[in-house]
Amino acid sequence: MPLCLKINKKHGEQTRRILIENNLLNKDYKITSEGDYLYLPIKDVDEEILKSILNIEFELVDKELKKKEIIKKPSFREIISKKYRKEIDEGLISLSYDVVGDLVILQISDEIDEKTRKEIGELAYKLIPCKGVFRRKSEVKGEFRVRELEHLAGENRTLTIHKENGYRLYVDIAKVYFSPRLSGERARIMKKVTLDDVVVDMFAGVGPFSIACRNAKKIYAIDINPHAIELLKKNIKLNKLEHKIVPILSDVREVDVKGNRVIMNLPKYAHEFVDKALDIVEEGGVIHYYTIGKDFDDAIKLFEKKCDCEVLEKRIVKSYAPREYILALDFKINKK
Ligand SMILES: C[S@@+](CC[C@H](N)C(=O)[O-])C[C@H]1O[C@@H](n2cnc3c(N)ncnc32)[C@H](O)[C@@H]1O
């Protein structure tokens, strides 16, 4: 029986949208109405998180709902979930994967032997439209936030061109950080940018946030990884933004720039850079802060200790670990 959110019908459309934006709607079941109430199937999530993103009265209930019937040819996920059920249940093989350009990145543990890893790679190569298949060999690590990869099938090349939100990006999955799962977040920021904005992208990588801010007056894109800046320069050309984006290869702590919209996409360590972000942002400006947490409280306390600010928007970007999330908070900085 799926976990459901029971809400008054009048909040239906808005709530459905927020659940989809936060990747919390359980799409295996149909949304059902009874009397004045709607039952929306949801994924396992803390009640506190739901309270803070929904802002309406709701109940959490277990309810029998109809399953969605979809007839289609078997996918990579369906095939491996039958063939490797035990390993999936033990958490050694994941059903989720990333597609970056024409490359696929699978999540298979080191504990799975090499022959089986290659076999799964070949299945992915056949069933997911792509040119090459890799596996995550490590977590993202180090200052550059890059992960080690193992080639499993198809072309053994790590440079690709990824498309999202109407722009294109050169990405080298072995040399720079890039997550296609943040495209929705970049689309959200894109909608907020105005022609008068001066954006400072403190941890720019190959520039997806900077390029998403293409409507701004000027964008300073900073990164400490030389490979990221090299690709960022190619991406600026590819998207014809030479007149707007200034690439800067440096530790952001050494850079002296100012802006009214500051992007801090370094979730694991962003808390160490809040003073620098406050130094960069103009009063009345906005800091887009990304962090890891179980809820939004720590981030809000941290900012409130350092300045007079208000939270304009907060949302779960994606899950990070069981009951831990990558969180996005937009802080308006009233007074430093
Ligand atoms: C999580 S990645 C985000 C990249 C990019 N914003 C994206 O969405 O693909 C963080 C980036 O911050 C860079 N970085 C880490 N420490 C830095 C520092 N002190 N100064 C500048 N860049 C830094 C890393 O090289 C990495 O590219």
From TrEMBL:
<dbReference type="InterPro" id="IPR040601">
    <property type="entry name" value="Trm5a/b_N"/>
</dbReference>
<dbReference type="GO" id="GO:0005737">
    <property type="term" value="C:cytoplasm"/>
</dbReference>
<dbReference type="Pfam" id="PF02475">
    <property type="entry name" value="TRM5-TYW2_MTfase"/>
</dbReference>
<feature type="domain" description="SAM-dependent methyltransferase TRM5/TYW2-type">
    <location>
        <begin position="97"/>
        <end position="335"/>
    </location>
</feature>
<keyword id="KW-0949">S-adenosyl-L-methionine</keyword>
<dbReference type="InterPro" id="IPR056744">
    <property type="entry name" value="TRM5/TYW2-like_N"/>
</dbReference>
<dbReference type="InterPro" id="IPR056743">
    <property type="entry name" value="TRM5-TYW2-like_MTfase"/>
</dbReference>
<dbReference type="Pfam" id="PF25133">
    <property type="entry name" value="TYW2_N_2"/>
</dbReference>
<keyword id="KW-0808">Transferase</keyword>
<keyword id="KW-0489">Methyltransferase</keyword>
<dbReference type="InterPro" id="IPR030382">
    <property type="entry name" value="MeTrfase_TRM5/TYW2"/>
</dbReference>
<dbReference type="GO" id="GO:0052906">
    <property type="term" value="F:tRNA (guanine(37)-N1)-methyltransferase activity"/>
</dbReference>
<dbReference type="InterPro" id="IPR029063">
    <property type="entry name" value="SAM-dependent_MTases_sf"/>
</dbReference>
<protein>
    <recommendedName>
        <fullName>tRNA (guanine(37)-N(1))-methyltransferase Trm5b</fullName>
        <ecNumber>2.1.1.228</ecNumber>
    </recommendedName>
</protein>
<keyword id="KW-0819">tRNA processing</keyword>
<keyword id="KW-0963">Cytoplasm</keyword>
<comment type="function">
    <text>Specifically methylates the N1 position of guanosine-37 in various tRNAs.</text>
</comment>
<dbReference type="Pfam" id="PF18093">
    <property type="entry name" value="Trm5_N"/>
</dbReference>
<dbReference type="GO" id="GO:0002939">
    <property type="term" value="P:tRNA N1-guanine methylation"/>
</dbReference>
